[in-house]
């Protein structure tokens, strides 16, 4: 019977707070964090009234920070954005928003981190059995599982720092600025071929990091 | 909340990779308390906003997202208030239809023909078949297997299916939780939304879980005997002795047949041959008894019996011969 109880468990509604909706960024002081909790409450209310409205709001609110986080795992803006969009896709299509028992933020960040890591693992041919988003709804990750993420993207960052200056510059132009190879070549006054070599060197580094951090 | 400024600063340093091993294990300890998770991601969001790696074009992204969702209207789509009214209308109608059909079923009851109530799929030897059910769930039927499902599963209180042979279920969760029950001769498996393999051959039923959670019950004794909750959980029940076994297995080994492959790890050769035989409706014999003592590890492409037997023959330097069997269930 426990199984039914678990399945039918309603998404716990958050404690009621005064509704101070603030559309500005919350970076900074503690009052910002309190405001962001109110925002979660407000979003939850929006989802109850009109799921699509809620989904749009949540997309607008979290898309940027999620992309910024996703790119730490991968090597192009496009992939980072794809990962985040896929998470939102599944969130909407499988109606995960009805089932989550954490805040939307926690769910979304966990899902993006999880998907991003799975993506690189798959990309570099080291696929472990991945955790699905459906599973993320039902159980909380262990500290080790959480920390694998920090470990991975920090190692990537370290690896980037250790690349030769030119190589690092080219790679970041390609990844973080989303510039096409041709444009980078023109700007740096080097050949397309050299740009490609720099990038593939950076990718090799990422692969090595992956091999080190995957146990 | 009980978190202090110090923790926040520590977490931010932790995200940017500037912590000592001691501080790191402090974070790890702190994280083992679920209560702290929310704060962890709260600070992560804050950190990402403060040190954004790049600024995506959010408006364009939202447009793409909306477009993609509108391309899959069946999954739920953007709706105007007009659609909203419409939906309420249909919703009410749906309820009446459900009531009417239940009444109808009650009235006609047992007199209704089986074929009207149920749909049956049957596979022959050497073939698999993918079946899409009315509720969106998917079933892959292995060779020489059958599946019977209610035609009206969207209207009934529970979704039900009957299996002989072997089938892989990907059960879709319904918006309001509605049980899906799979029956074999021996047992029933109850789920809400999950993926699992079920096999009922040689008077033994075996269930292997891929995803989600299922409840297994004995049909004879009408009671729950196991809950499979992790990938690779396995349950087995025989017809005669009602012996029930649960253990942990590699689910790959039980589900690669879907991809037309047979995967074995340290499997005794007779078992390998009987597995292949049950797929093609043959007994496979090997006269070399020393070979039959051996074990096999590997993946065989499962689309041509002659090729499989040739491959095995090459490996063991002997001959494997098919013999047509009457019935292998």
UniProtKB/TrEMBL annotation, chain A:
* Alphabetical keyword list: Sigma factor, Transcription, Transcription regulation
Every copy of the RNA polymerase sigma factor 70 region 4 type domain together lies at: 154-206
According to the entry, every stretch annotated as the RNA polymerase sigma-70 region domain falls at 59-123
Q: Extract the InterPro entries matched here.
A: RNA_pol_sigma-70-like, RNA_pol_sigma-70_dom, RNA_pol_sigma70_bacteroid, RNA_pol_sigma70_r2, RNA_pol_sigma70_r4_t2, RNA_pol_sigma_r2, RNA_pol_sigma_r3/r4-like, WH-like_DNA-bd_sf
Q: Name one GO biological process term.
A: DNA-templated transcription initiation
- Protein origin, superkingdom: Bacteria
The Gene Ontology terms for molecular function here are: DNA binding; sigma factor activity
The record ties this protein, via SUPFAM superfamilies, to: Sigma2 domain of RNA polymerase sigma factors (SSF88946), Sigma3 and sigma4 domains of RNA polymerase sigma factors (SSF88659)
Q: Which family does it belong to?
A: Belongs to the sigma-70 factor family. ECF subfamily.
What is this protein identified as?
RNA polymerase sigma-70 factor
Question: Which lineage is the organism of this entry classified under, starting from the top rank?
Answer: Bacteria, Pseudomonadati, Bacteroidota, Saprospiria, Saprospirales
TrEMBL record, chain B:
Q: Name one Pfam family in it.
A: FecR_C
Q: InterPro entries, from UniProt?
A: FecR, FecR_C, Ferrdict_sens_TM
Can you tell which superkingdom this protein's organism belongs to? Bacteria
Q: Does the keyword Ribosomal protein apply?
A: no
Q: Which residues form the Protein FecR C-terminal domain?
A: 262-320
- Which GO MF term does the entry hold, naming one? sigma factor antagonist activity
Per UniProt, residues of the FecR protein domain are 120-215
Its recorded name reads FecR domain-containing protein
């Amino acid at each position: 019977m426990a199984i039914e109880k678990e399945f039918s468990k309603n998404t716990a509604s958050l404690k009621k707070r005064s509704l101070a909706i603030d559309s500005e960024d919350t970076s900074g002081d503690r009052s910002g964090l309190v405001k962001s909790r109110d925002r979660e409450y407000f979003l939850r209310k929006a989802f109850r009234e009109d799921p699509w409205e809620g989904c749009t709001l949540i997309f607008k609110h979290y898309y940027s920070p999620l992309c910024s986080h996703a790119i730490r795992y991968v090597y192009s803006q496009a992939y980072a954005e794809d990962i985040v969009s896929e998470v939102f896709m599944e969130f909407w299509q499988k109606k995960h928003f009805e089932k989550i028992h954490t805040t939307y933020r926690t769910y979304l960040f966990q899902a993006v981190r999880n998907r991003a890591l799975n993506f690189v693992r798959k990309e570099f041919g080291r696929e472990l059995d991945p955790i699905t988003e459906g599973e993320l709804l039902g159980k909380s990750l262990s500290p080790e599982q959480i920390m694998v993420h920090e470990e991975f993207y920090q190692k990537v960052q370290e690896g980037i720092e250790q690349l030769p200056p030119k190589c690092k510059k080219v790679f970041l132009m390609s990844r973080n600025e989303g510039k096409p190879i041709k444009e980078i070549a023109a700007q740096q006054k080097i050949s397309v071929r050299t740009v490609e070599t720099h990038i593939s060197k950076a990718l090799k580094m990422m692969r090595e990091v992956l091999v080190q951090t995957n146990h | 909340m009980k978190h202090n400024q110090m923790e926040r600063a520590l977490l931010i340093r932790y995200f940017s990779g500037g912590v000592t091993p001691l501080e790191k294990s402090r974070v790890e300890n702190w994280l083992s308390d679920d209560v702290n998770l929310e704060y962890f991601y709260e600070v992560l969001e804050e950190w990402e906003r403060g040190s954004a790696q790049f600024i995506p074009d959010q408006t364009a992204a939202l447009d793409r997202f909306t477009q993609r969702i509108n391309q899959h209207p069946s999954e739920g789509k953007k709706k105007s208030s007009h659609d909203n009214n419409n939906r309420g209308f249909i919703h009410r109608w749906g309820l009446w239809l459900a009531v009417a059909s239940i009444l109808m079923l009650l009235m006609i009851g047992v007199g209704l023909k089986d074929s009207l109530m149920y749909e049956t799929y049957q596979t022959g030897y050497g073939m698999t078949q993918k079946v899409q059910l009315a509720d969106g769930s998917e079933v892959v039927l292995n060779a020489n297997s059958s599946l019977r499902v209610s035609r009206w599963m969207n209207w009934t209180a529970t979704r039900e299916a009957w299996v002989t042979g072997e089938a892989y279920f990907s059960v879709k969760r319904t918006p309001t939780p509605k049980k899906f029950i799979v029956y074999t001769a021996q047992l029933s498996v109850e789920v809400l939304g999950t993926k699992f393999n079920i096999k009922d051959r040689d008077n033994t039923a075996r269930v292997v879980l891929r995803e989600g959670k299922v409840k297994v019950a004995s049909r004879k004794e009408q009671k729950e005997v196991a809950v499979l909750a992790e990938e690779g959980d396995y349950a087995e029940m025989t017809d005669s002795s009602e012996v029930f076994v649960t253990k942990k297995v590699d689910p790959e080994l039980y589900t690669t047949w879907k991809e037309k492959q047979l995967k074995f790890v340290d499997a005794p050769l007779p078992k390998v041959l009987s597995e292949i035989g049950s797929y093609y409706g043959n007994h496979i014999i090997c006269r070399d008894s020393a070979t039959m003592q051996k074990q096999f590890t590997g993946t065989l492409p499962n689309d041509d019996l002659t090729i499989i037997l040739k491959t095995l023959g090459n490996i063991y330097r002997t001959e494997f011969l098919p013999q047509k069997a009457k019935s292998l269930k």
